[in-house]
Design goal:
The chain has one domain: Collagenase (Catalytic Domain). It is built from six helices and four strands, in the order E-H-E-H-E-E-H-H-H-H. It has a four-stranded mixed sheet, with helices on both faces. A hairpin with a 5-residue loop joins strand 3 and strand 4. The relative contact order is 0.19. Helix 4 packs across helix 5. It is globular. The longest helix has 20 residues. By secondary structure, the protein is α/β, with parallel strands linked by helices.
Length: 187
């Protein structure tokens, strides 16, 4: 499994190896094959607003967009797609929900990956199914001690509140088009 990170924002610094390890564990837990590749883009509100307008017709920033690919190339790499996360929006949401930015980014990573796996939250049943899976994955990450040092309580209430706040009918899945790749920046 491979996770590529493109950091297009300067607001926060993060440990890329740790983010990759968490993303890879989520992919393993979801049963993705070892040849799966995922691209994560961390950006500002301006960048995600342009993508949101271009792909979903919504001229406003959002927290996360998912661009599914699911193609296998000659090298046998299975491209899952891109997850684009606005760090500016994640910071605002973390403040509003009274938990760490790190926790919010992990939630958005889980949420985005589930969209790549064809989960959605347009109706009540889809919303319930996706929320349950988010909590299951989050609990697994806690059990694996991958969230050590990120503010997490035993009931995972920030995640549950965050999932509930989304509500049905607010899809974030975009058309399958990849943003231009840039080199991975050095930590």
């Amino acid at each position: 499994m491979e996770v590529l990170i493109n950091n297009r924002q300067k607001r926060i610094q993060f440990n890329k190896r740790r983010i990759c390890a968490i993303a890879e564990e989520i992919m393993r837990f979801e049963g993705l094959p070892e040849n799966a590749e995922l691209s994560l883009v961390f950006c500002d509100d301006d960048f995600i607003q342009k993508l949101n307008d271009q792909h979903l017709g919504k001229d406003e920033p959002t927290d996360v967009l998912s661009f599914p690919m699911e193609e296998v190339f000659e090298s046998e790499i299975r491209l899952m797609g891109d997850i684009v996360i606005s760090i500016e929006t994640a910071c605002r949401q973390a403040t509003k929900l009274k938990h760490s930015v790190g926790l919010e980014v992990i939630f958005l990573l889980i949420h985005g990956l589930l969209h790549l796996r064809k989960y959605d939250h347009d109706g009540k049943e889809d919303f319930r199914r996706m929320k349950e899976r988010e909590v299951t994955i989050f609990s697994h990450l806690c059990d694996q001690k991958l969230l050590k040092g990120i503010e997490v309580n035993e009931e995972h209430s920030p995640l549950v509140e965050r999932a509930a706040a989304k509500g049905p009918g607010t899809t974030r899945k975009a058309a399958p088009r990849r943003p231009k790749k840039e080199p991975i920046t050095h930590n």
